[in-house]
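hey so i finally got around to running the thing on that chain from the lab meeting. sorry it took forever, my laptop kept dying and i had to restart like 3 times. anyway pasting the input first so we r on the same page abt which one it is
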Amino acid sequence: MKLFSKDKAFYKSVFVLGFPIALQTLITVMVGMLDNIMISHLSQSDFSATSLANSYVTIFQIFCMGLGMGASVLVSRYWGMKKSHDNEEKADISLKQTVCLMLRLMLLVALVFALGAALFPKLIMQSYTDEAPLVDLGITYLRYSVPTFFFLGLSLTTTIVLRSVGQSRYPLYVSICALFINLGGNYMLIFGHFGAPQMGIAGAAVATMIARFFEATAVITYLLVVDKKVGFRIRHLFMQTRTLIREYFRVCIPVLVSDAIFAIGNNSITMVIGHLGEAFVAANSITAVTQQLSTVVIQGVCQAGAIITGQTLGKGKKQEAEDQGWLFLGLGFALGFLSALFIFFTKTPIITSYGEKTTAEAVSIAYSLLNSISLIIIFQATNSIMTKGVLRGGGDTTMLMLADNIFLWILALPLGLLAGFVLHLPAFWIYFFLKFDQIAKTIWCVFRLRSRKWIKKISTGKN
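ok and heres what got predicted. didnt touch it at all, straight out
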């Protein structure tokens, strides 16, 4: 049971897989941050409304991550089987069936969210805030974002599949191009430069849609035409999948359900914050982006953990997977402390970059929230690498579904509501209690890792 090791091969494999993912995550966060900074120069109301509308998009994004990461558990395991020549033909068929089922479910979920944004934008915005100006601005943003759900879903899920078989560079290059497309589109359409119409908040939504369209087209074309590891082609979208459905639902659906309910829980936190006032909403938006910036490396290690664990177990090496689990736990603690330091040293320049139209009250709350998250981030980094990485890669998806949601719904949300609306505590403590599940979950992860019950057998279905 070692938290740190001199095993250079292990850390090299984490770096090779995790660095491109971390860099791509950084680019995605930068896109959101640049959107926020540009919109904040219009008005605080535009900034707050965009943040709340994007909370709905974020729910969909988490759904897609759940679909993609659930499929990744199977894809990485089947890929490990193929490389070790263990039932190679069956593993190959099961791998393609997994991708097929994932894409079908993703398109269905995208349709539901797109219809929600098109038909019920007012209802969606009113669930976040009762301030009429924010509701009206958010409705505009959501209506222009309807096609984005399909493009975002395709790019997210396909990228995760490619990463699961070691192909992380190409999606990274695509994201870099999308960053510049989004940045240029924002500059033109928000403010009306280079002869483009000045669209304000609607321009931000259109620029994001264009960038996502490029990203989805480039990534799905690579999967269907160029990629040879997964070998998935257009004809496989219509393949028979009933032989794998039972195994797919057993392993993948708990990940989707877990992330979906977790997204709704986090969305409930946003609703709590939305009813604390516009200044609190603006401050939380600044905090969220800063937190995302501080955890890009953690996100990379999370996905690397799931892939490495899945491939190791696919080769039948249970003891090696367990040893790697403890090393990932050590990485979690180390990266958590580094993230806390990052927040401490960058909070002032990040807050001041949001312009003069951000009120003094919002700035003051932002400092309190960032001080709070700099403590929570140590625990969040550790349990994220374990739950979204090692334990998920081991196939322990049903137990993770239960743990994620029990800690959120029974512990964090009630404590946050109590702190904000009953005790009227300062912003620091409201945010601390809204994120208290991160501390409890970290303790649980250590006991779960020691139990070895997280290592689950995965079959290739009935092929």
